[in-house]
Design a protein that fits this description.
It is built from nine helices and 13 strands. It has 317 residues and is an alpha/beta fold. Bound molecules: nicotinamide-adenine-dinucleotide.
Length: 317
Amino acid sequence: MNRILITGGAGFLGSHLCEYFVGRGSDVICVDNFFSGSKDNIRHLLSHPHFELMRHDIIHPLFVEVDQIYHLACPASPIYYQTNPIKTVKTNVMGTINMLGLAKRIKARILLASTSEVYGDAQVHPQSESYWGYVNPIGPRSCYDEGKRVAETLMMDYHRQNNIDIKIVRIFNTYGPRMAVSDGRVVSNFIVQALKSEPLTLYGDGTQTRSFCYVSDLISGLVKMMETEDFIGPVNLGNPDEFSIIELAKKIISLTGSSSGITHESLPQDDPVRRCPDISLAKEKLDWHPQTALEDGLHETISYFQEVLGVSSREKP
Ligand SMILES: NC(=O)c1ccc[n+]([C@@H]2O[C@H](COP(=O)([O-])OP(=O)(O)OC[C@H]3O[C@@H](n4cnc5c(N)ncnc54)[C@H](O)[C@@H]3O)[C@@H](O)[C@H]2O)c1
């Protein structure tokens, strides 16, 4: 089992997964259309003999021979997925059908990177996998939320109808090096603003909560899920430690030693108020739980953005 296809491999999470498998001596095929990802994320792998990059849009069929498919292709940040919402739906629906068709043809195991967004503006807290969600089907986020819900449906239907070997993972907010500078996700936004000494933009009053999982923890969860037998999911992967957005902003200002203040803007439509995973199932089935403390993960992420932005450290001694 050492030939791995990673769709969305030039994105934030995909690039870490590529790196992980190349490091383990697997043959990695990275497929990406560079819509929200970048060659810079995988540049260090390009000359590696076990790494192959294919520029390809997964809404078109793909034929390659692999043992496992990590299906991550889909823009994850609202700025990107709302740029062309029809394309986002196509990526989730046609792209997932194409990857499942491939899995069927070559008898590969396939893992879908789904999302906590399938829970929508959750009415139960924390969210466990048995909760069916509270999702607006016609709002500006629906292309992503409902797109992923259909992707999960397709996974289950191919499994039931064609006996495809599937895994479904619902990823909660993950952060770390190689998040795009301008993709508008809260951690990258705050760090970039703090490093540029600009005010941190806080939507709403900042009491809405999120949980933040460091990328290396998430990657280990994805791999554990792929390697597990007799459990198809869906399973939540995320960090259950809950922080309010204002707490996060203050932490980042302190860790960067920034002089930035905070500005308030109105909350985007359908923005969930609370978001926190119940990871009991991941603990039980995968023996997985996140290990990286928020401050440690932020430290790594801040160093990355300092390098990308070319700003020197202003951290307090
Ligand atoms: N990062 C998170 O916090 C998070 C949370 C929940 C779910 N996820 C899921 O994990 C996956 C990866 O997320 P990410 O944070 O790395 O996002 P990302 O936007 O950095 O990466 C997605 C990658 O997919 C590529 N892509 C998009 N559409 C494509 C298409 N039609 N054909 C080929 N490639 C395409 C993009 O160019 C990009 O490289 C996504 O499916 C996302 O929904 C991520």
